[in-house]
Amino acid sequence: MKFKAALILIPMALLLSGCWDKLELEEQAYVVVLGLDTAKDNNVNVTFQIANPQVGSTDKGNAPNEPPSDTITFSASDILAAKELANSVVTRKLSFAHLRTLVISEEMAKSNLLANVLGYSMRDPELRREINIVVSREKSSQFIHKNKPKLETRPHKYYAFMQQRWRDTAHVPYATLNRYMQRVHGELFLAIYGTTERLAAQSSKDEDSYKAGEIPQKAGDPVQIMGSAVIRNGLMIGTLTGEETRHALLLRKKALAHNFVSSFPDPQNRNYRITLRLIKEKNSKIKINVKKDPPEVDVEIPITLQILSIPSLVNYVSDLNNQKLLKQAVKEELENTSKRIVAKCQKNYQGEPFIWYLEARKQFWTMDEFEQYDWEKKFTEASVNIKYDLKIESFGKQMAPQRIEQED
To answer: How far apart are alpha carbons 104 and 187 in whole angstroms?
Structure first.
């Protein structure tokens, strides 16, 4: 019996195994950045930035004069059609296996074509849902061509490192293709906002109250990425600054950016600002009462503070009264800013990017009841109470900085 089974299985293994569909690395062209722009006749201009695997590797000696990447643009009905068209020009087979970044122009983000193009393109198994979405003020092809970072030779490394920095600073949201598709109907979706264009720079004491293009920068990389693009029903309807984006993320139950640095006015000397590290170790407490009309939303956000610098040299270390004053001032500043952002979303954007709808949905037995309730409309009239629960953890390693005496 065993001998007969072996006679059957061995020929099957020989027939089913093989390497008929294998491709060597040098036969493939890896797209690391994809760009989308509007075109005529409901077509899309698709830009492919293709990485050169030899540049930046130990094999660079075989290609000393080759560029780190090649960028080409094709006009087609969607991404998959443009990919097939590109395969007739590029000598190697295009692959999305290493694609991490999708750049969409603001014009494209405001068109009805975007949701359809992204929805149908996700049928390609290589187009992963973890791709980060960046909305650029200018055309995406211009954004990709102008982005030439000096410290990173390989383009995919630049975006990989920047995505980690975005999580550290919380100036931009965590925006992936999967999250976009989840919130394409009804809920607000926040996408990363970037540009290579410079607007009239206006210096501000508040270092995170900028959007991309407004940061007062001299020299360095041309790309600025800060703030978020607000998308509703697949269409871009506005933008948020870096500060507003931070608070939108803090108001969510779970925070991906668990700590970041920010400055606040010194309550004892308004000519100075105190730099703090804000740490969110626990989830926010969100309670929604849908039985009231309008509904009531209570949000409590636990934050641990670390004092990093006190330029005014006011004694906040040993003076408990000063500590209490500082804590109250930071609490009021955070609560007032969060309330302004909630009011802006209620009035201007007619929706909420705080993912509170998940908490509201728990109050209903069925999805039909929740949909009939129309949470997005109810949110615009909701009474929102925001409370920050602050705790000062430390004042740094140097408890009492050296005071510099001014000579008369």
So the answer is: 20
Determine whether 128 is exposed, middle or buried from the number of CB atoms within 10 Å of its CB (0-12, 13-18, 19+).
middle
> For a pLDDT cut of 90, what percent of the chain falls above it?
0
Does 251-400 carry CATH code 3.30.300.210? yes
Q: Which token pair is 337?
A: 């800013």
DSSP for residue 91: S
d(CA 171, CA 103) in angstroms, rounded, equals: 18
Model pTM score: 0.81
pLDDT 10s digits, 40-76: 888 888 888 887 665 554 454 454 556 666 788 888 8
pLDDT in tens, 280-303: 888 888 898 888 888 888 989 898
CB 191 within 8 A of CB 175: yes
| Domain boundaries for CATH 3.30.300.210 within the chain | 251-400
Start-to-end Cα distance in the chain: 105
How far, CA to CA in Å, does 367 sit from each of 357, 360, 372?
A: 12, 11, 9
CA-to-CA separations, 373 to 70, 348, 363, in angstroms, rounded: 51, 21, 11
